[in-house]
């Protein structure tokens, strides 16, 4: 038994089919606007699990920040006790570009972070503030914008 020959329609690859369709006017307006390349002033990273595993996940992020082309410091405010000078060295971080700061007296880690951000001598200030309420987050954002810096809060759970 022979089946009648049915001509096959050519199928466009997925992206060609998408690109063949005209963009809706709204999408076209969005596509033509310049992208905002200015980085956010505040970022937060939440890591859960065993402390050693969390540090292993954190190592490449901190290593990249310690090698930043910006001549300013990577500042770590009140890091966890497990983040030692030995760990920094073993993780391959550039320790010559890192400041480890601890609050003194009645000063809180939040206050110290805001001061470090405002001064602008650090390209990134990393904190371990948990919990971090919206008011504290806004203070970090404001300080980061003043010092043209980045605030990164890490939550270890």
TrEMBL record:
Q: Name one GO molecular function term.
A: transferase activity
Q: Which UniProt keywords apply?
A: Transferase
Q: Which SUPFAM superfamilies match?
A: P-loop containing nucleoside triphosphate hydrolases
Among InterPro entries, the record links this protein to: Cell_div_suppressor_SulA, P-loop_NTPase
Q: What Pfam families does its record include?
A: SulA (PF03846)
Q: Tell me which Gene Ontology terms the entry assigns under biological process.
A: negative regulation of cell division; SOS response
NCBIfam families from the entry? Answer: SOS_SulA_aeru
Please report the name of this protein according to its UniProt entry: CDP-glycerol--UDP-pyrophosphoryl-N-acetylglucosaminyl-N-acetylmannosamine glycerophosphotransferase
Organism, scientific name: Pseudomonas kribbensis
């Amino acid at each position: 038994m022979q089946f009648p020959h049915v001509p096959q329609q050519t199928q466009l690859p997925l992206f060609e089919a998408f690109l063949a369709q005209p963009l809706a006017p709204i999408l076209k307006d969005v596509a033509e606007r310049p992208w905002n390349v200015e980085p956010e002033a505040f970022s937060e990273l939440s890591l859960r699990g065993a402390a050693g595993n969390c540090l292993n996940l954190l190592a490449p992020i901190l290593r990249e920040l310690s090698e930043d082309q910006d001549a300013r410091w990577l500042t770590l405010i009140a890091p966890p006790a497990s983040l030692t000078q030995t760990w920094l060295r073993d993780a391959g971080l550039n320790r010559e570009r890192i400041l480890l700061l601890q609050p003194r007296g009645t000063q809180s880690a939040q206050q110290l972070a805001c001061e470090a951000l405002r001064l602008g001598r650090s390209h990134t200030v990393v904190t371990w503030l948990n919990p971090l309420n919206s008011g504290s987050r806004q203070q970090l954002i404001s300080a980061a914008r003043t010092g043209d810096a980045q605030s990164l809060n890490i939550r270890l759970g």
